[in-house]
Amino acid sequence: MLSLPERLTLRDLVEQAWNQVQHSVLEQLRRTIEGLLGAECDRRVAEAHLLGDAARTGSPTTGVCQSRFASLAIAPFEAF
Question: Would residue 48 count as lying in a domain?
Answer without folding.
Answer: yes
